[in-house]
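input
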Amino acid sequence: MTMNAVSRREVLRRSAAAGALVIGFDVPARGWATAADRAGHLARGFPLFDGVLHTDTAATAAAAEDFGHIVHRRALAVLEPGSVEDIVRLIGFARRLRISVAARGQGHSAYGQAQVDAGVVIDMRALARVHDVDGSVADVDAGATWRGVLGSTLPRGLTPPTLTDYQDLSVGGTLSVGGIGGAMFRYGAQVDNVVALEVVTGAGRRAWCSSTRRPQLFEAVLAGLGQCAVITRAIVRLRSAPARVRLLHLSYENLGTFAADARAVVRNGRFDTVQGFAVPGAAGGWAYLLEATASSDAGEETLLAGLHDIRDLAAFSEMTYEAFVKRLDPIVDQQRQAGVWELPHPWFDAWLPDDQAEAFAGRVLSQLTLEDVGGGPIILYPTRSASFGRPLLRHPAGELIWQFDILRTALPAGTPAQTLIDANRRLYEHVRQIGGYLYPVGAVPLSPDDWTQHFGDSWPALVRAKRRHDPARILTPGQHVFR
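output
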């Protein structure tokens, strides 16, 4: 029987009879007290939830894992909210007792970002409704996945402007870090396509915010790494979805030729999405793949005009837009079945300045082995920096910037995960030296001082927002942004 199927009074009666109901927080022991306990120092004002506060080992163990399988922080409880008000109640209570709180969507973080030691994890999957699609925007819960959003928009011929390659990420999760994909050179990141947000701040306040309504809060939340508020709902922009697209693959043996054509493809405006990859070369080393889609009626010669004379290596295919945005599904399914999904994933994700991108990528790739990658992809392609407008999504200056991601998998017989994490830290220091930035979703150890430098001139505004909206500093400690 679900929580909604019975009254809360009935739930209380049944749980108390079973001795399993959480009735308070034992302050000296820093733990939850159930009806079976006789704790004498319970904090007053323990909230009554519409959902369920899980304290069992299975729930807390699950919340101590993420896609990275590297960091394991055990929470005291996991809240499965029955309403947004449950989040308000929890945060208000947690603030008073200085209990840390983190929101968790699909658990796709790589380094414990959504975990919390001896605190409470909010399982946002319980709030996953697509409320409305009206032709220009979608009103969705933060726990909804982008696959779920597409399920409501594609039948109407609509799509979010920028989609991540993997669709089973939560809306709240990607909006907390940025949300990037092959269409961002045209439309910006996902955070650039948000009309309004509903949030619960670290002070326990439920509020809507936008660029005109509480704009400081709005900007502190988008790409704000969960430091000031929990996103509970978002109104996101939509655009028309093409029925079909032509997918172009261009193969290169030379990094310089690949880079020149990648810049041209981003600048010429003929394509809707652009991505690039470093892949194992047939004779060893690395080769390069440029992938782009077009929905216009332009001919192949027009689309390839101005690029290097590699037409013999150009491959066009046609597919539905839905098939294109879900093209990774078979690969993900295969990895899950093979057990790869359960291995450590010490990812490295960064933005490189255009004038340093080739030299930096070339040096890194020349020293990188397949064992260092473990079968994961290496992403390398430019985008327009002007398409990004959120101050907390940090990136280099210049017309073009490059996404550079090493999506590592630490294979059982390969390089140990910690060795790869140490390598990530060294890469980060080199990226910083050349004027680049992290895209902070991977496995890179960072200190508060690193974060101060990362946010740069946006740091003072984030500090002010933290003081105002999370004065007890209880939210998302796994990011290690604040001491």
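quick obs: The first helix runs from residue 8 to 18.
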